[in-house]
Amino acid sequence: MKEPVMPGAVPNPLRNILDRRLPRIAGPSVLVLFGVTGDLARKKLLPAIYDLANRGLLPPGFGLVGFARRDWEDQDFAAEAHEAVRQHARTPFREDVWRQLSEGVRFVPGELHDDDAFDRLAETVRELDARRGTGGNYAFYLSLPPKLFPTVVKQLKRSGLAESSDGSWRRVVIEKPFGHDLESARELNAVVDDVFPPQSVFRIDHYLGKETVQNIMALRFANTLFEPIWNRSYVDHVQITMAEDIGVGGRAGYYDGIGAARDVIQNHLLQLLALVAMEEPVSFSADALRAEKEKVLSAVTLPEDLAQGTARGQYAEGWQGGAPVVGYLQEDGIPPDSTTETYAAMKLGVNTRRWAGVPFYLRTGKRLGRRVTEVALVFQRAPHQVFSHTDIEEMGQNSLVLRIQPDEGVTLRFGSKVPGASMEVRDVSMDFTYGQSFTEASPEAYERLILDVLIGDPPLFPRQEEVELSWKILDPIEEFWTKNGRPEQYESGAWGPASAHELLARDGRQWRRP
Ligand code: BG6
């Protein structure tokens, strides 16, 4: 965010350069983690906290408090956290970093509805303030199913933990799903809003913490090359793909009844669409960025015929990584008659001057051919072809592919002359790959997002308006699907149901084969 310049002040370019090079370090604070025994905490959150400490981005006055229904002492939680860090941290393990971090680790055993437990939590953070100098600044991270949010938020209020004094701060971090539809998202928000002011609420969409997702803005707005062609005059269509090779795994309880569209289109994919389609924000302040994303989300249109413009599927048995796998309905914990989709595709429009008439095709699925997330802008064909030896049908359309993961980078595909005596043109690729261009490895999304919470920097966190706009897009589709039978089966390891391929074929297009 740009520093405000006082009227008449001479901007000092050197100072700005120095400022940018200084790492952003969190101030004294306590992170209270609810749901410490869950998968997310073990695989992502605890390792990310260690990685931040290891990079020197947490202050000496930092405390980490776990809260759960376990009969643990501080050292038991510290041992669990140690194990999680050893297994999943991105950066090498350093005994001195861990020792320093673990001195601020506390555990509060208790039930979420137990007043005493929250009173003990209040005592624990006060003790950390006194002993570790955490400054009375608390972030409450709710890594819990949303149905438990109201209980926790009310307890935070009752125990006085939600109230700040003497310039200290309180923040609450909530994980998706932000509701099940528009109505429940509003109800959920009302609960949180009753206790915390909007600027203290940090909604996590971990895709926004990914370097490659933030790079969409750098690519578009730090360069002159792409923006002139980033519109309906040049772009034929956009494909946004988030494919996973894994199945539902141990998450049956969460996933069944939610499905692919609610799980990732409502949040990750629509956020990608917003970043690709939005206008340039006047700054990267949270307000400016969110305002542009909201404008785009409110301009999204649905296909007139939802039967033809959407597709959904459910994985059947097949293959993953060379091994046979069972279908969704045979997975542990999934009812054999479940109609939950594990694949969803849809054709959306963006009704703005820049994008009118350009389809945005979104697709996501589990147990697909491989794990890949990408955004591809596919450009129109050249209006006239002079190359008589080239069958232009064989030549692809130019495309710009933003490779979000796993092979992070950007690919530009265009036609090039094949060496030889004739003028034959074939598609070639020009690649930017993070690993080759930068020596520093990208931080994990959760490192960036937890640091932003502790610093109080909100641009990468969607606000409630975005959440509601996304549900407004999805609700009619979900309703249509609920009324219209079962999802189509697709073979595990393949690229989704036939209806998804027909969706593009009807428009004379095809899905990219990542
Ligand atoms: C989560 C979804 O938000 O994103 C999961 O709930 C999904 O179903 C995960 O597997 C994928 O995240 P990533 O960062 O591996 O693409």
Fraction of residues in β-strands = 15-25%
Major sheet: size, sense and barrel closure? 11 strands, mixed
Mean pLDDT over the residues: 93
Envelope shape: globular
Q: Structural class, from helix and strand content?
A: alpha/beta
Enumerate the spans where pLDDT stays under 50 for 5 or more consecutive residues. 1-18
Q: What is the gyration radius calculated from CA atoms? A: 25 Å
Termini separation comes to 35 Å
Q: How many E strands?
A: 17
- Helix content, binned percent: 25-40%
The small-molecule ligands in this entry are:
6-O-phosphono-beta-D-glucopyranose
- Total number of helical segments? 16
Oligomerization status of the protein chains:
single chain
Tell me what you see in this structure.
- The chain is built from 16 helices and 17 strands.
- It has helices at residues 13-21, 39-54, 74-88, 95-102, 115-132, 149-158, 182-193, 211-221, 252-255, 259-277, 286-298, 306-309, 434-437, 445-455, 464-483, 498-505; strands spanning 29-34, 62-68, 105-109, 138-142, 170-175, 201-204, 235-243, 300-301, 310-320, 323-325, 343-350, 360-365, 372-379, 399-405, 409-417, 425-433, 488-492.
- The strands form two sheets. Strands 7, 8, 9, 10, 11, 12, 13, 14, 15, 16 and 17 form an eleven-stranded mixed β-sheet that branches. Strands 3-2-1-4-5-6 form a six-stranded parallel β-sheet, with helices on both faces.
- Helix 2 links the parallel strand 1 (29-34) and strand 2 (62-68).
- Helix 2 (39-54) packs across helix 14 and helix 7 (182-193) runs antiparallel to helix 15 (464-483).
- Residues 244, 263-264, 373 line the site of 6-O-phosphono-beta-D-glucopyranose.
